[in-house]
Amino acid sequence: MAERKSRRVRTEPVPGSDPTPQLPQQVVKASEDADEGWGGQPSRGSKSGNEEQLLRDKPPHY
Q: Which of 52, 53, 18 has the alpha carbon at shortest distance from 32?
């Protein structure tokens, strides 16, 4: 009987992603990760476009 080959699909990693698994001691943030997304404080002076628009468009009673 012939040896079975794996049926799992193997694809190339997405460009810009880390193709190797990370160890807990060597965690590297992905390029799209930001501290704000994980509950952290945003860096000073870096307001998003949406935040700036919300500050400009305050209702008159505020």
A: 18
Beta strand segments in the chain, E: none
Residues 54 and 46: their CA atoms lie apart, in Å, by 15
Amino acid occupying residue 24: P
Residues 8-51 have pLDDT tens digits of 888 888 888 877 766 666 667 776 777 777 777 666 666 677 88
Q: Is 30 within 8 Å of 17 (Cβ atoms)?
A: yes
Residue with tokens 């699909």: 9
Instruction: Compute the distance between CA of residue 19 and CA of residue 22 in angstroms, rounded to an integer.
Output: 9
Predicted pLDDT of residue 31:
67
Which residues, 6 or more positions from 43, have their beta carbon under 8 angstroms from its beta carbon?
35
